[in-house]
Design goal:
about 45% helix; 11-stranded mixed sheet; 4-stranded parallel sheet; alpha/beta; about 525 residues
Length: about 525
């Protein structure tokens, strides 16, 4: 089967494939000055059936504010805000949350061509391939170069695709994730993820693992992406921090596994070993005027102007002027602060179940009530479990809990903490949970997330004599769990054990007045 790239599929044929959802994953870390360009290119894609998962990886600049602005403007954007754990963990969390048939990736300082997703999906649907790989532009200031490699237009087997890889085993064309379209079912079936042990070439390692499981491949002879090469970029900075030897050995081992699985290792051993010396090169860049590729880049040049490069440069200069001020603000935000829990537990005489968090987030401290972050799923899970409407006011939230025998509190009464970071908690003074148990008929304790579970075991379990049941966190950072999955997991553990005890206890209890101290 032979295919031509680009618009040869035709408008009618393209329309046929618009129902297939694509999940576009964008990790973000301190990219405020580039985010407008990136997100505008995604939201303006000619292909409209998108799930745009933006992961703010603990940015200390204004990236989160930019992401939130776009989230309000476009309902297709799913924003995950979490602590800084690295690009691999950001991608993994987004993949766990994704619902699209296909996965597409971006870096937050780059941008897409206007019909990138449309071209990739059309070719994937026409051929049924597990991976579509496209050309891209490499951008360095005002310099561009077109990067491509495979010129074949037919559907390729794994062996045929691997033969092309051996021609340039260290090329960005094969190593990066952002010029490819992946089938999500392959990722899920084999449990593929990005290595969190690496902060350089982790995308290359993911690709090699994916290729080993995929069956068919095709190449799109059209650029789909603008890759910006800049000082301070992830590759440039992380290369200094990472053990190059470790990275190369891991990649060599994955290459070996791939080619051994096809019986091609002995024939390609020399080239694979040579990969050590040529790792992760991204090619040569030429100035556009007078370049042999200028005709091919004419379309790219027009697109760059439309994206308003001058405005981006101006914005970058302005950002540099504010850098010192932002650094001082960021330092203040990241500093440890001694914080006291200012609102008490919610409970009454009917309470049989106690659900514990760690410590109120910044948002909860502002609202003086539990789970105040708008993206925390706690109240949605509670409402789903009991078949009620999601409560909006504090009084509605208290009523929902108390009518079903549920009490809530946090493990920590006071601590030193940075912002809302549970992992930063130190110098803990635990809450008086034993005292609460003496005043109530609570018989079962649940911990909302791993951090609450660990802190309870460390500071409270010996005093209460009741082991806690660990529940998956309702925090927006726990993106691996969808709302449906969270509700199912909570229902299995909480309703099965807690409700039976609650019902038995209520027969011999007189309903008392709510003692909901927190408010």
């Amino acid at each position: 089967m032979r295919l031509r790239a680009g618009r040869t599929a035709g408008v009618r044929r393209t329309e046929k494939y618009r129902m297939e959802k694509v999940s576009i994953i964008i990790p973000v870390y301190n990219a405020a000055m580039y985010l407008d360009r990136c997100l505008e290119s995604v939201t303006a894609q000619s292909y409209r059936n998108l799930e745009i998962i933006v992961v703010n990886d603990g940015s200390t600049d204004s990236s989160l504010a930019v992401c939130e602005e776009y989230e309000k403007k476009d309902s297709r954007i799913v924003l995950i805000d979490k602590e800084n754990t690295g690009v691999s963990d950001s991608r993994n969390q987004a993949m766990g949350r994704a619902t699209g048939k296909y996965l597409q990736f971006m870096d937050s300082d780059d941008w897409l061509t206007p019909d990138a997703t449309e071209k990739l999906v059309t070719l994937a649907e026409m051929t049924g391939c597990d991976m579509v790989i496209g050309d891209f532009y490499r951008v360095d200031g005002e310099r561009f170069s077109l990067k491509s490699h495979i010129q074949e237009t037919k559907v390729m087997s794994r062996e045929e695709f691997a033969a092309h890889m051996m021609e340039e085993p260290a090329d960005f064309y094969y190593g990066v994730m952002w010029n490819k379209l992946y089938r999500r079912s392959v990722v899920e079936e084999y449990g593929l993820s990005c290595s969190t042990e690496l902060n350089w070439c982790e995308d290359f390692l993911f690709n090699l693992s994916y290729i080993r499981r995929a069956d068919t491949f095709c190449a799109l002879q059209a650029p789909v992406y603008y890759y910006v090469k800049r000082k301070g970029s992830l590759v440039a900075s992380e290369l200094k921090k990472t053990s190059a030897v470790k990275v190369r050995l891991l990649l060599l081992e994955e290459y070996r596994r791939l080619y051994q699985s096809m019986g091609l290792y002995e024939d390609n051993k020399v080239k694979i070993n040579g990969f050590v010396l040529a790792i992760a090169k991204d090619g040569h860049v030429s100035r556009m005027p007078g370049n042999k590729l200028s005709g091919k880049l004419e379309e790219g040049s027009r697109e760059a102007k439309k994206m308003n490069w001058a405005a981006a440069e101006k914005k970058e200069k302005k950002a540099k002027l504010k850098k010192a001020q932002e650094a001082r603000m960021d330092k203040a935000k990241l500093a440890y602060t001694r914080v006291e829990h200012t609102f008490g537990p919610v409970y009454d005489s009917r309470s049989r179940i106690l659900i514990l968090g760690t410590f109120p987030s910044v948002k909860s401290r502002e609202t003086a009530f539990y789970y105040g972050h708008p993206r925390n799923r706690f109240w949605k899970v509670m409402a789903a479990l009991w078949g009620e409407a999601v409560p909006e006011t504090v009084e509605e939230k208290k009523r929902l809990l108390l009518e079903h025998g549920v009490a809530i509190w946090d493990v920590v009464q006071s601590c030193d903490i940075r912002g809302s970071s549970d992992s930063s908690i130190r110098n803990v003074r635990p809450a008086d949970i034993p005292g609460l148990l003496k005043r109530t008929g609570i018989r079962q304790i649940y911990a909302n997330g791993d951090a609450a579970f660990r802190l309870y075991r460390k500071y409270c379990e010996k005093q209460t004599g009741i082991p806690a049941v660990r529940l998956p966190s309702t925090s927006p950072a726990n993106a691996v769990f969808s709302l449906e999955r969270l509700t199912a997991e909570w229902g299995k553990k909480l309703l099965r054990r807690g409700t039976a005890q609650e019902s038995a206890g209520q027969k011999n209890q007189t309903e008392g007045e709510a003692q909901a101290d927190g408010g």
